[in-house]
Amino acid sequence: MKCKVLFFAAAAQAMACREKEIQVASSATVGDVFDSLAQGCESLARLSSSCALAVDGKLTKRKTILHDGCTIAILPPVSGG
Question: C-alpha dihedral over 50, 52, 53, 57, to 10 degrees?
């Protein structure tokens, strides 16, 4: 299956991009995708415990199973003033 991953704030900085298209197994979860991306990027891995995850615009849990063509968003906490 193909999915699009959107990276925001610190996740975009860690990945050096704001968007990526990936291939995933038919039984993949949003957590599987995050873990796979984090294995190749230590900066993203450090954000693991603080990121919210969304699929098709809705916040979700790591165990949510993905579907073909979905859009995953990785949303680290944002700070500012």
Answer: -160
Instruction: Determine contact, residues 72/60, Cβ cutoff 8 Å.
Output: no
Cα 19 to Cα 16: distance, rounded to the nearest angstrom:
9
| Second-level CATH architecture of 2-75 | Roll (3.10)
Q: Is the pTM of this model over 0.70?
A: yes
Decide: residue 2, CB within 10 A, 0-12 exposed, 13-18 middle, 19+ buried.
Answer: exposed
Helices H / strands E in the chain, number of each: 3, 5
Give domain limits for the chain: 2-75
Q: What angle do CA 71, 75, 80 make, to 5 degrees?
A: 145
pLDDT, tens only, 47-73: 999 999 999 999 999 999 999 999 999
